[in-house]
Amino acid sequence: MRARDLLADFPTVTLDTSVLDAARLLADQDLPGLIVVDPDGLPLSILAGTQVLALAVPGYCQDDPALARVVDEAHADAFLRDVADRTVRQALPPTPRELPVTDPDATVLEIAALMARTHSPLVAVVDQGRLLGAVTLQALMDGVLAS
């Protein structure tokens, strides 16, 4: 089984997409992450849902989870709205990591190794300078376990 067999169309965002729009896209389509593309439509990064949360959750709550418990429910439910004016660029790690990108001929083991190495729930698939889509962790597991 190859990447082309597990490939699915996948939504993309740009560096200037608002974090709130990215969060809505993640939630509306039940996605593990998003592909961040450059002006030519090629992958720049993968924005995992956890990176959106890391930007949205106040630092004091990340540092001391007990403090998150003392925030009243009304404010706790609204924490994502506080990032409405922030962009995807701000949600990405400051130091670029290895980009989880492969070609359509990659085997499932190659894809799995790339996901594990980059801690990414999806891998972008590029062929001849064009983004074809992505292989998600779910599709990879489904494909491997069905074999």
From TrEMBL:
Residues 94-147 form the CBS domain. InterPro entries: CBS_dom, CBS_dom_sf, Diverse_CBS-Domain. Signal peptide: none annotated. The keyword RNA-binding does not apply. Pfam families: CBS (PF00571). Keywords: CBS domain. CDD domains: CBS_pair_bac. Transmembrane segments: none annotated. The keyword RNA-binding does not apply. This is CBS domain-containing protein. It comes from Streptosporangium longisporum.
